[in-house]
Design brief:
The protein is 52% helix and 18% strand. It is built from twelve helices and 13 strands. Strand 2 and strand 3 form a beta hairpin.
Amino acid sequence: MAKVTIKIGGLSCASCVAKVEGVLRGIDGVAFASVNLATGQVAVEYLPAAIDLQEIRGAISRAGYQPLEDTTSEASLPLGEEGVDRLLLRRLIGSAVFTLPVLGIMLLELVGQLPHSKTLLVVQFLLATPVQCWGGMPFYQGAWARARQGTSDMNTLIAVGTSAAYFYSVAATFFPLGTTAVYYDTSATIITIILLGRVMEERARGKVSEAIRRLMKNQPNMACRLKNDGTEDSIPIRDIAVSDRLVVRPGERIPADGEVVEGYSSVDESMMTGESLPVEKKSGDRVMGGTVNQTGRLIFVAKGVGAKTLLSQMIRLIEEAQGAKPDIAKMADQVASVFVPVVLAISLVSFAGWLYFGALADALMVAVAVLIVACP
């Protein structure tokens, strides 16, 4: 059984988690699939004889998501997202700049400080349109991607709910429907608030894998190998083989796990054991990859290399711990898989009921209210 971790783009809610897990678990040869929304990764266990990695990545693509990168036990783990996407941050700032005046106009009208007029309606239209069309673009893209796959997610609710409020307001502005009420502030505010949530989410994701990034910085890129003729050459750590004799000078990090065969030194193992005092090393002692040689020159025989080093195993265990989900999270995923369709159905039923007993404007606003409340 092989294990792989694949980073996925386009995950936005728990229903996305249920969708990807359902698609992967339905593939012959896949024994286990677990999506971690916080890290944006899916951990998969599969039989290489029955299915290969490209088929797994293809299944993710067909589900409407983007497999960005994968990691196996032979490769380094993903570093996680660094900071926040600049375009997303610009969308948030731009949306906030246009939304605040719309909110201001709405509040001033409510308290009677501004008269309700066609001019103010047009001003609100001009301010809300960039928010809807540019700020809300990620939600439309996500909703369209899910629609092409015949599914829905939170992007669907956001796109449908804000679009209904926005286009109703446009119609009320330029083609009055018997009411002068508009809801530009509703559509613009919802988009801005959810963009703020996405930015905060990305920042949180960047911190989730901080422990892994710190550990990976302790892995040296190169190692000094001692040849049989006594000469030395520098090689990438991925080229280290078991039984290679490696040389570590004072101040260098040990590139692999092994056993000292020559030399005497003290090694700082605090990053592995928490012990603040250096540990003396001599012939026959074990050394761990990632620790720092301090005082003397050591020659050791590599025993654990690549993914077999203690450091690599620690990194893998941390990632597996991040990917583990408690039972309450699994229950939430099950609920989320049907949440969006149910909300859309309730919205349509509400619209039909209010349309039968009341006016179009009331029916539309009730339907929009259901979608908007469900958006978070």
